[in-house]
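My current task is to audit a protein record that another person submitted. I have pasted the whole thing underneath without changing anything:
***
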Amino acid sequence: MALRWFAPVIMLLTLLCGGAHEAALGQTPPAVQGREQRSPEERRRVLENDRHWQSLTPDQRETARENMRRFRRLPPAEKGRILEDFQRWNDLSEERRQELHHAYERFRRLPPERRERILQRHHQFQALPPEEKERVQKNLERWRKMSPEERRALRERQQQSPPPR
């Protein structure tokens, strides 16, 4: 006897829930508190972010949501480091951000073995003591100041000399 009522009850609940959902969709969203208190720059940035969000594909939106979920699960110290990095990025000039973006794109186009070798060397550099890092930085500056001919000559000398013991 209870099974006889099961289907109609489920149907009624489905219709009621569906109707409530449709009614909710037709309502205007409540005003966001504090909207009036935003500066014109903040309002412009919110609108710009909204336009950007609307331009994303559903897959890109889901990736953004997943990244946010992962961020929320991070330990506070890691969140702080990421937010500091983000702030430093925002503090850069647009020109510098473009330079870094192009460098990153060039890095991404490198063969995987070359990218891996670069990352390994970067990790090795980061592990150096401060004095050694400073020595490497000075050598890099000297290298950058050399002309192409001077660099070529130095490479040839290094290839001809025996390896250090």
